[in-house]
Write a structure and sequence with these properties.
Layout: H1 10-24, H2 37-55, H3 60-73, H4 77-85, H5 88-105, H6 108-117, H7 126-144, H8 146-164, H9 171-189, H10 195-208, H11 214-239, H12 245-248, H13 261-282, H14 288-311, E1 313-314, E2 317-318, H15 322-329, H16 332-349, H17 355-368, H18 372-386, H19 392-410, H20 414-424, H21 436-443, H22 450-479
Antiparallel strand pairs: 1-2
Helix pairs in contact: 1-2, 2-3, 2-16, 3-16, 4-16, 5-10, 5-14, 5-15, 5-16, 6-7, 6-8, 7-8, 7-9, 7-11, 8-9, 9-11, 9-22, 10-19, 10-20, 11-22, 13-14, 16-19, 17-19, 18-20, 18-22, 19-20, 20-22
Length: 482
């Protein structure tokens, strides 16, 4: 084994001990208030799970929590595993991530990226180039996800910096590389079929049966994305005062976009999927086609795309291995997290635990005097701060269902409450531990100056929070009246 591999020492085993003690704490702490003995066990499991996710790992604490839930409830562990993996969100992640991995497999994302940044239109227009570059990042974040976008666009950004003579860690290099992680995240939350968004939207559906119109959702997030991108460009131009003279003198080759057969198939399948998913938002509800699409749902349509990819032959050979796409595209850590989350959250919300009744009894007086607008502001500030220190996937899956329970008390709109969780919790870039992508930013010490990383992280969190309160809340009230 290489000496470069970091070994776990005493600190690791201390964290393990704390995790185990917290997980079993409910067996020894007496019940109080409306919380039952079973509720105390579930609460201990929940606290231990949160600690395990944050301080240890996403996978084995998830499995451990399900086993403990089986002991707490006196049921077979296999039944809870069946229940967890059978949840809609887990199946959706498997199916959608499998077929969208084909875009990366065919290198369609790389070809589109290189074509856009070489457009003749952008020659001699540095801030237009930067703006179009941000738009490209948004599109890639929307189509293929954050990490695929980062690993495609960072090397291209390095090449641009070197071609133009920008030094590593320069304001321009730091700004452009940070943009990839920030704007791609905005692209991700604009796609309602994305695994991240579905965590929040599924919580909303489970809460009151409300099904968000995908087209309206995308339009709403697109408005937020445009304003946020303008704000980000403004930071570079007016606060950082980036020198764009090398970019102004850049010459374009004007090469045409050329796609191979695999990439054309990728464009067709991806466009078809998006068209079918948005069709029910446009077509009359009574139309037969609308009924068929609604019957298939996002899982059925995604599965159909996988079927097409599996059946397609070029010169007698398959165009891809669907099994490899599933392995390459599926974020298994998130799947296992959601499996455990569904089981434990179901336990927390069960009437037998008395936990929700206790939370309602405790916090009802605090929220009783709040207006919805103050409630939204409090959520934005809370989410914006806490997501910089706790894993944002954990926060989204746990806090959105909990905050939804308070909307009825104060007359708040549960749709807006959900959207605030989806959007603000995704803006986790101000510290190295805020999210996996922020870890990439702060870990890229070769190209990104840490001074600019912190500056851009904090500035964008603040600006995004302001945008969500000033624009997102009123726009949500208009587009999604409740």
């Amino acid at each position: 084994m290489s000496s470069a591999v970091k070994k776990d020492g005493l600190g690791y085993w201390i964290r393990v001990a704390i995790w185990v003690v917290l997980s079993f704490s409910g067996w020894f702490i007496p019940a109080s208030g409306t919380i039952t003995e079973y509720g105390m066990k579930v609460l201990g499991i929940f606290v231990g799970l949160m600690f395990g996710w944050i301080c240890l790992d996403l996978i084995y604490p998830s499995f451990f929590s399900i086993i403990l839930m089986a002991f707490a409830g006196g049921v077979a562990a296999q039944n809870l595993f069946y229940k967890g993996f059978a949840y809609q969100i887990c199946v959706i992640i498997f199916v959608l991530c499998t077929f969208t991995a084909y875009v990366q497999h065919s290198k369609l994302d790389q070809v589109l990226a290189k074509w856009v940044i070489d457009l003749k239109l952008l020659e001699g227009r540095p801030w237009l180039f930067i703006t179009i570059y941000m738009a490209l990042i948004f599109v890639l974040g929307y189509l293929v996800g954050i990490y695929a976008c980062i690993f495609v666009m960072w090397p291209i950004t390095y090449a641009i910096c070197e071609e133009l003579g920008y030094e590593k860690k320069s304001p321009f290099a730091s700004f452009m590389l940070f943009a990839v992680t920030y704007i791609s995240g905005i692209g991700m939350i604009s796609k309602p079929m994305d695994a991240w968004c579905l965590i929040g939207l599924t919580a909303l559906t489970n809460f009151n049966g409300y099904e968000v119109n995908y087209l309206m959702y995308t339009i709403y997030m697109l408005v937020i994305a445009i304003i946020s991108t303008i704000g980000f460009v403004g930071i570079g131009k007016f606060l950082m005062k980036i020198d764009v003279s090398p970019l102004k003198n850049r010459k374009s080759t004007g090469e045409k976009l050329v796609l191979n057969k695999e990439q054309k198939i990728g464009v067709g399948i991806l466009a078809g999927f998006l068209l079918v998913m948005y069709a029910p938002s446009i077509l009359p509800k009574e139309l037969f086609l609308t009924t068929i699409i609604n019957q298939l749902g996002v899982i059925g349509v995604g599965a159909a795309c996988c079927i097409v990819l599996g059946m397609w032959r070029s010169k007698g050979e398959p165009i891809c291995d669907v099994a490899k796409l599933a392995t390459m595209g599926t974020p298994f850590s998130i799947v296992f997290l959601m499996c455990a989350n569904c089981v434990v959250i179901d336990g927390l919300q069960a009437s037998e635990t008395g936990i929700i009744a206790q939370i309602t009894q405790t916090f009802a007086p605090m929220f009783a005097g709040l207006s919805p607008i103050v409630f939204y502001l409090a959520l934005i500030v809370f989410y914006g701060i806490i997501t910089q220190f706790v894993h944002n996937v954990v926060l989204l899956s746990v806090f959105v269902p909990i905050t939804l329970n308070f909307t009825g008390m104060i007359g708040a709109n549960p749709v807006i409450t959900t959207f605030l969780g989806i959007s603000v919790l995704s803006c986790a870039l101000a510290t190295a531990g805020a999210s996996s992508r922020s870890g990439l930013v702060f870990g890229n010490t070769v190209w990104i100056d840490m001074k600019w990383a912190y500056f851009l992280g904090v500035a964008n969190v603040i600006i995004f929070m302001i945008i969500m309160f000033v624009v997102g809340v009123p726009l949500g009230s208009i587009m999604f009246p409740y």
